[in-house]
Structure formats: C-alpha cells, structure tokens
Amino acid sequence: MITEQAKYPKDMQAGTKLDVRSCQGQEELEACVALQIATWGYDEMDVIPRRMFTVAQRIGGQVMGAFTAEDTLAGFAMALPGIRDGAPYLHSHMLAVRPEFRNSGVGRRLKLAQRADALKRGIRLMEWTFDPLEIKNAFFNIEKLGAITHSYTPNFYGVSSARIQGGRATDRLHAEWWLDSERVTEAVAGRHAPRGEVEMRIELPHQVMQWKESAEGAAQAMALQKANQAQFVEAFARGLAVTGFSRDREGNGWFELSRWVSSNRPPAASATA
Q1: Where are the alpha helices (DSSP H) in 168-271?
Q2: 234-272 burial, b if ≥16 CB within 10 A, otherwise e?
Q3: Which of 96, 155, 187, 228 has the fewest CB within 10 Å, making it most exposed?
C-alpha cells in the first residue's frame, strides 16, 4: 500500500511551501525557458525564447510560476490571449514541472492560479492542446479540472523535436475549460463533474507509455494514434464530446464521450480529417 507521504518527493514531504504567482523579471522568465528545454528536450527549432514569455505577459497572457522559499522555479504555466466568437479567451500553451515536484499537485495549483487570474479579468474560457496518447494528462484534464474536448487536429504542430513525441505526428486534442461552469466548479472542488450518458468509449491501453518511450514500440504507438484519430473524428462529427475519462487497476484508460449540454456554448463538430 502506498502511503500519502510516499506519493510525494522528499522536499515536498518535508513541507515545502510554494508561492504560485506571476513571474517577474528576466531571470524568472529565463528559468521558464530552461525548464521548457529540460522537460521536452526541444532544439532551437521548437524552443520558445524568453522574449516571447515577455510578450505573452505584455499582451494580456499569463506566465505563472510556482516558487520554493529559495525562489527555485518548481513549475510554470504560460498562456496567450485570443478572441473566439467575439469574446476573449486564453490559450494555455505550456505547463512544465520539475521532476522532483511532479505528482505533488504543482500542476493543479498552476492551473487553478490561471483560472483565478482569468476569472478576475472577466475571461470565462481557457483552452489548451494535449497528446491523445497520454493517459495521465487526459485523466487530469477531463476528470480533475473538468475540461471537455470535441476537437481533434492531426499533426497540429508539425514536426517536433520533443523526445516524448518519438517521431509521431503531433496529433492533438483541444481541451476547453469553461472556467465558471458548474462542471468545472464541481471538478476543481474534488466532486464528480456533470456529464451526459456515455455513448462511446475510446481506449488507451496501459502499454502506450512504453510504446511512446521506446524505439521498439514506436510502430504500435503510431498505429494506435491513427486508429483512435479515426474514432475521434467520427465521434466529434456526430456531435459527441469527451466528458469523462476512466482508468482500471491495470492502468488502461478510456475516453468517455457523450452529448455535451452547456449553458456556455453548445457542442459543435470541429475536427479536421
């Protein structure tokens, strides 16, 4: 049995307190750039330079950092502003957490800080993309945050130098986080987020992480991505949305799709074949 203490890194077990706030000054923004490179292994083609973090803050975006008492950057989240259907929203482009702070709630605290800042400014929607083969991220986005998705774009970013991409096309699901909706309010409070009756399930076998991280499994990861892409595109064209994500004891995951009814915005098919 894993104890509550054993889930967290030693420094977190010792009671490390984190200050989650907007990053300030060039040194803190440079630390975000360094963590970005360390997390994904980007080369010069993909890395976002410090000046773009500066621009993001200047034009109404966000660069939120989680700092230790010694001002070490434990993680950051960066978002850019946009306009959709005549209303402002934020596109959360990056979230990275140092290895020793992962699985300790840092990512959640950064997302909640983004949400609080957005709502304070009257922004009700945040979006981001995520890899459709990531079980852990899917569970976090859909179940823990209350995001939904009804949009899938094949090869969204084109060729990527990220280690975890493993040469696969950069297919992405687009998360929508309706910040003041009942669904999100319930999810972030730790309760069961409202959802419709499940009409379709799309599976992610637990072996997918091994496939993604090894040259031997690359073909299996690519085949699964292609097969699931077809299912997502067909489901979204029918007006379904991912409103749930379940896992079993073996670690297998399932996207659960239903009719999404929201007072914020009705569902619409927006997949690109």
Answers
A1: 182-188, 208-212, 218-237
A2: ebbeeebbbbbbebeeeeebbbbbbebebeeeebeeebe
A3: 155
pTM comes to: 0.86
201 and 245 share a domain? yes
Last residue of a domain, one of 73, 101, 123: 123
DSSP state of 31: H
**Tens place of pLDDT per residue across the chain (273 aa):** 233 333 334 444 334 689 999 999 999 999 999 999 898 887 777 889 999 999 999 999 999 999 999 999 999 999 999 999 999 999 999 999 999 999 999 999 999 999 999 999 999 999 999 999 999 999 999 999 999 999 999 999 886 555 555 567 899 999 999 999 999 999 999 999 889 899 999 999 999 989 987 878 889 999 999 999 999 999 999 999 999 999 999 999 999 999 987 644 533 433 433
Q: Please tell me whether residues 106 and 191 are part of one structural domain.
A: no
Which of 123, 157, 173 is the last residue before a domain boundary? 123
DSSP 8: S
Residues 87 and 142 in one domain: no
Together in a domain, 105 and 141: no
Q: Do 59 and 82 contact (CB within 8 A), yes or no?
A: no
All residues at 6 or more sequence positions from 38 whose CB lies less than 8 Å from its CB, including other chains: 96, 98
Q: Domain containing 99 — which CATH number?
A: 3.40.630.30
User: How many domains are contained in the chain?
Assistant: 2
Domain that holds residue 178: 128-273
Measured CA to CA, the distance from residue 20 to residue 115 in angstroms comes to 12
